[in-house]
Amino acid sequence: MMERVLGPLPQHMLKKADRHADKYVRRGRLDWPEGATSRDSMKAVTKLPRLQNLIMQHVDHSAGDLIHLLQGLLRYDPGERLSAQEALRHSFFTRDRFSRY
What start-end ranges are recorded for coiled-coil regions in this protein (predicted)? Predict the structure, then answer.
């Protein structure tokens, strides 16, 4: 589900995974959890939209800042992920969208 919504795991992270990661990763992709491999489960996950499409279903089309913020917060690699301070300085929070009210 994570890969479907957020995209594949970065290869550099998969290469760093230890031998116990085989339980969770198969052929460079996240493996299905035990007990969750029914056809219905797989079908439901394959129907999930990507993150930006998921957001666009629920907010107006000016949600670019929100999408960018969430993508930054949900990055797999902690070194690339936005910190709390960076997130609070993001244009989603700092732009002057309320000035007309």
Answer: none
- The helix or strand, by DSSP H or E, that contains position 25, with its residue range, turns out to be strand 25-26
Phi, then psi, of 77 in degrees rounded to 5? -80, 115
Which token pair is 19? 């031998």
* Positive or negative torsion for Cα 39, 42, 46, 51: positive
Provide the CA 99 distance to its chain's centre, in angstroms.
Answer: 31
- Of 78, 74, 100, the C-alpha closest to 13 is 78
77: its two tokens: 């690699």
The full set of domain ranges for the chain reads 1-48, 50-100
One digit per residue, pLDDT tens: the chain, 101 residues?
A: 677 777 777 878 777 776 666 666 766 666 666 655 667 766 776 777 777 777 877 777 667 888 899 999 999 899 999 999 999 999 988 877 655 44
